[in-house]
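Quick log. Single chain, no ligands specified.
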Amino acid sequence: MALKDVKPTRSELIGLKRRVKLSERGYNILKMKRDGLILEFFKVLEEAKGSRDAVGEKYERAQQMIALANTVEGAIGVKAAAMSVREKPPQLTLKQKNIMGVVVPEIEASKVKKNLAERGYGVLGTSAVIDETANAFEELVDEIIRAAEIETTMKRLLNEIESTKRRVNALEFKVIPELKEASAFIKMRLDEMERDELVRLKKIKRRVRPDFLFLFHYNFFTRVCFFK
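-> predicted structure:
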């Protein structure tokens, strides 16, 4: 706000004071929101760390099981079991939840883990290693879906924190100081105008008083002489 565009009037001063109070109230609300979002972010961050570790562990186990299955059943046996699986992809239900004004996804997955009948390969023609390998990969997929939900939530919270932080900084370091500066400028100008008006009135009073006294004495003596 340029001071040259500020009108030094009392109505403008009252409006600026209201805007300062409103900006300070908004600043406090946004600051509380930012702090709350940061707390929520750290909670989700802990979940994200645990989820990443779980994905890593289950990926390692899945790789070990597929290596073991290739050793036991052979590459051809593993491929034959994989080709016989009926294609029933996991069903995902995407919902939403609100965290302090931030809409984040909530993913519900079904049919990730399958039973022997749904897998399709023959029970007699395969060993238990194939079942354990399938279980390991299904658990990995389930954990990846959970990790995707947590990672998306974390990113949205982080974006909202950055956006709120920018608004807080704008209010704290730009908007409120400029409003206060404009308010102080108007108050200074009004005080100067009031002093100038007081000086002007004093000058007028000094000019008017001798003339008034002269007229008073003239009228007084005129009346005295008339009555005589």
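The chain is about 80% helix and 10% strand.
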